Amino acid sequence: MVDRPDPSSTPQSEPDDMDTGTPAWVRFLLIGLVIAAAVVIIAMVLLGGDHGPGRHG
Amino acid sequence: MSPRIRKAMLTVHIAASVGWLGAIAAYVALNVPALGSADEQTARAAYLMMEPVLTYAVIPLGLLSLATGVVQAAGTPWGLFRHYWVTISLATTAFATVVMVLHVPAVQHFSEAAADPTASIDDLGGDLFHSVGGLVVLAVPLVLNIYKPRGLTRYGRRARP
User: Fold this and answer.
1) Which residues of A touch B137 (CB under 8 A)?
2) Given CA atoms B53, B59, B60, B62 in this order, what sign does their dihedral have?
3) What is the pLDDT of residues A15-25, one digit of tens each?
4) Do B77 and A11 touch (CB under 8 A)?
5) Do B3 and A3 touch (CB under 8 A)?
6) Element (H, E) at B22
7) What does the alpha-carbon distance between residue B56 and residue A43 come to, in Å, rounded to a whole number?
8) DSSP secondary structure string, B93-125?
């Protein structure tokens, strides 16, 4: 069986406009993570700082 | 890394990663009888099973997924820190692994309480937060590994030939 190259196995060359700055999808992802972390922290504060199984014993 | 070894490593990485998600799904499922069963013995059994599922399935598969992912990235032109999608996948997987390992004592507390017939299990409260949260966190590397969105890190731009 011939081991054909998998196009996803190696990085494709990045076009010039992708060379500078942080990509938009990274910014959106980071904003989402910050919002999720804030929601978790607020929920923990409202619940008295406890979370998880058996309130961690 | 030769193409043959790379493909073998990729196979192990995918198997471990998908298995990890499946093991967490099984752990989530144990919360259904633990929280919802009217029969106390069934609820205790579900709490008891959380520890072996975590110790012998979730943690080993998570560690294997992390290790094979690191080898897979470091041993290919992708690199660990050249592309945003690889670096973010590494960070989220490492974060989930650390939380998972730190969570073991809490799940052992479940097991001890459920095994003691004189101890009440009414206040244990299940473990949906960590398990469902883990699935949500691991959805990030899952999507990134499939779509491989473009974007070089600062290090990746500097290291480019």
Assistant:
1) none
2) positive
3) 554 567 899 99
4) yes
5) yes
6) helix B3-36
7) 31
8) HHHHHHHHHHTHHHHHHHHHHHH-TTS--TTS-
pTM above 0.80, yes or no: yes
Tell me the C-alpha distance between B146 and B80, whole Å: 16
Check if A13 contacts B (Cβ < 8 Å). no
Structure ipTM: 0.73
The 10 Å Cβ neighbour count of residue B123 is: 9
Q: Judge whether B131 and B54 are in contact, CB under 8 Å.
A: no
**Interface contact flag, B77 A10, Cβ < 8 Å:** yes
Mention every residue, 6+ apart, whose C-beta is less than 8 A from residue B147. B85
CA B45 centroid distance within chain: 23
Contacting A with CB below 8 Å, chain B residues are 3-4, 6-7, 10, 76-78, 82-84, 88, 103, 105-107, 109-110, 113, 123-127, 129-130, 140, 148-152, 157
Q: Is there a contact between B97 and B66 (Cβ–Cβ < 8 Å)?
A: yes
Beta bridge partners of B83: B152
Look up residue B90 and give its two tokens: 């590494």
Q: Say whether A23 and B77 touch across the interface (CB within 8 A).
A: no
